Task: structure prediction
Amino acid sequence: MEQKVFDPTVQKALEQFKRLDEKITHYSSVIGLVDWDQKVMAPKKGRRVFAKATGTLRTEVFKLSVSTEMGDLLAVLTSPENFVSLNGVTKAKVREYKAYYQKSKSIPADLFQEYSILTAQANDAWEEARANNDFPHYLPYLEKIVDFKRKFAEIYGYEEHPYDALLDEFEPGLTVKRLDPLFAKLRESSVRLLEKIQNRGKRTHDEIFNQSFEIEKQKEFNRFILPIIGFDMEAGRLDETIHPFAQTVNTGDVRLTTRYIENNVRSALFGTIHEAGHGIYEQHVNPEFEESVLQSGASFGIHESQSRFLENMVGRSKEFWNYFYPHLKSYFPKQLENVTVAEFYRAVNTVKPSLIRVEADELTYNLHIMIRYEIEKALISGEIEAKDLPATWNQKMQEYLGITPNTDRDGVLQDVHWSFGGIGYFPSYSLGNIYSAQILRTIQKEIPDFYQHIGNGRFELIQAWLKEKIHQYGKLYTPNELIVKATGEELNAEYLVEYLEKKYSEVYGL
Amino acid sequence: MEQKVFDPTVQKALEQFKRLDEKITHYSSVIGLVDWDQKVMAPKKGRRVFAKATGTLRTEVFKLSVSTEMGDLLAVLTSPENFVSLNGVTKAKVREYKAYYQKSKSIPADLFQEYSILTAQANDAWEEARANNDFPHYLPYLEKIVDFKRKFAEIYGYEEHPYDALLDEFEPGLTVKRLDPLFAKLRESSVRLLEKIQNRGKRTHDEIFNQSFEIEKQKEFNRFILPIIGFDMEAGRLDETIHPFAQTVNTGDVRLTTRYIENNVRSALFGTIHEAGHGIYEQHVNPEFEESVLQSGASFGIHESQSRFLENMVGRSKEFWNYFYPHLKSYFPKQLENVTVAEFYRAVNTVKPSLIRVEADELTYNLHIMIRYEIEKALISGEIEAKDLPATWNQKMQEYLGITPNTDRDGVLQDVHWSFGGIGYFPSYSLGNIYSAQILRTIQKEIPDFYQHIGNGRFELIQAWLKEKIHQYGKLYTPNELIVKATGEELNAEYLVEYLEKKYSEVYGL
Result:
């Protein structure tokens, strides 16, 4: 995009803004790399001191983002007469920095300091509480975090629901008003579908996974599939961690991790495909956005849509396994000797209500999210208090999933998110699923033989489509703009509902 | 060390200086880590853009080190009335920053800019020239580098020889006047010793290394010896690169690399021991110096003394192999089936004049350095010009080593150092050898059964001695202060001369 010629003040502000953006992004890129290093590579004795070094760099990024310089530049560039004349790319950059600047500036420094100390302590308390199944130990911290978040919501401001202010951090522009009906539809249909599956009583042979799959072979197979499904191994790596993640350094350096478990071949397999979805997204961002705040994905929800799309819509499809199963079988001939591809496909699509979110299947996963969403909303609006959480949690688990945890460790204590103040984060996971089904429906319209491509192990056209319609844009568009541009309509849960009904009708012969 | 109470201005300056030192060191620590990452881990497509990110961080470190803030702080802290009252640690920190500040500030910005561009181009030109054996292609760059270095020497200032100003960058305080007699003695004795060895005509069985040693087994053996010789694997790593190096992140995170060659088991073996010498040094620095400029080794020469000590004095000793050879044999039973430990010991101490410095043995290595030292001195003083280099090089090779390279690629073009402006660097390598023999002589006085410890595979006492006498101090002392403190006298080449004569008399039965 060409930039029109501005008067010297604006021109100078634009150049200064570009340099500041570049510096912040360079530092963030370095922080991304060293974060990865400390989780994946660093020897343990150096980590404590190194955390102080990265702390210094993080503080610098924060200072630059809320500096007087940034404030002055944003004031010039967002003035009504100047902003309209900016090109789309600059507008998007200004939008990103402005949102962060305003949020950060609105919190008084001492309040933020207090909050930072609290979340560090709360994280430790949560770890201990989970280890000892001791919710009361965590409760006072959680209460304070909820208090802070209620305060922050008031400070940030919102139109209808205080939770909107928190949602906005993860999915810019999203509100309870828009989300409630989407989630209600998904929840009701999922509960109904789960009931139907359970009433049908048909079993899948997921016991085939209860065998030893040599880890070295698993590694080879994971490395075998990554480039085929579209991950560029010359622009990335695959390593191992207990908690898998994808970390971007830049578009030419995206690092995935996965976890190999000998008695659970599914863990690494779908974990790797999931993280590859995140990673391919970042590898495909327009190189012009590199060294700028636009270099990353549009939002948590959109990002999750790309990982879920690859993991579920692609990676748990019949065609995917028609292509890959003979390969998998050649890696594990004994373990899969008597398992047909049809059985394998059904096995990887087993539905089984379980207590732990991160182990949930494609259908029940969203119900876990619904529970957290409803609790968060009620906490922030003041309908419930932190002390009510174990009871509320267990009651909702029973209501939606038909099971109740015996311990808080397997219930309300299972997730780290609240301990670092990440209230508003959970909806992203289900948003990802909703987005991904909507994207699936569009891509199938535009590439009618979509699943044939997968069945032939050809991912080029599919990845090219995703790149063109979604990935290349980075943060150029807001999530809502992006999904409308890519699919022609706003977020619609209908497609996920249909997708799930169709898939499980087939898998379970409903 | 306790700090006395100063007036508020000085007290404030001290606090500010501490924070600035911490910030610079934090950034340097991050730069160290990401430099390692880019050489060892990073996928290739991301490196170009990431170099810009680290460039931003490097620039920031430079800016902080020569900032007005630094200048003002140094002015306060080095004023005669204040400096004398500082404690030793602060004095050392001030000394380090002052030296860098003065050097950097003395070069006009545009001259430095020009020089930076030149060295970047010269490095490319050198790579091409070496690949194509084309010295004339490199010559114009080298001429300009020499011009710059002559200019810098005048700007930095010196008392007797302009080369002193350059030496000082690598070995603070060292001069031609002190170095000339040390090197003359070493050169003469080495040439004589080499002649004796060649006249003796006795061969070692180094052909045993011309066999295939499985790389996986080599890796295992390298990992086996590292913790035994004193490298803490929980405070470090061992990885692979073409050019081995040691990189410190902090004292709890020191990363070594080595290179495995199937037909050259010596390469990784002695490379790893060498780098471990560097690495153990940094692991042993007093943790109180962490997050400060004192956290690293005293000088290039002292650092090299620690790697050479471990590689040569320890790692090529008879006792070392008395202990380790049975282990090595268990890793490579076939290759070493008919080789006795005495033969193996003699083989790893083979002397053979060769063209390439990095492949040279313990004796002839110093002669390679003498050639470079004499050339550098003559270039800087104007006795010779860059165009004379191939002829001078070949003539000196013939004179000292008795061989002449057929191509400049195997002669004057072999080293990278001059292309990045590193004139004054080479002497560090032989200084390391001289220091290490002097240290050996002291440690043998204080631990009379030094070589018995090695023969028993017990390195605790030896490493504790090195830690106490040398390693712990980091940059607290200048190299000269440190060697006097540790060995009771200034640098003396006599000990290396004796050591070499003794060793080779034995190996070659002179």
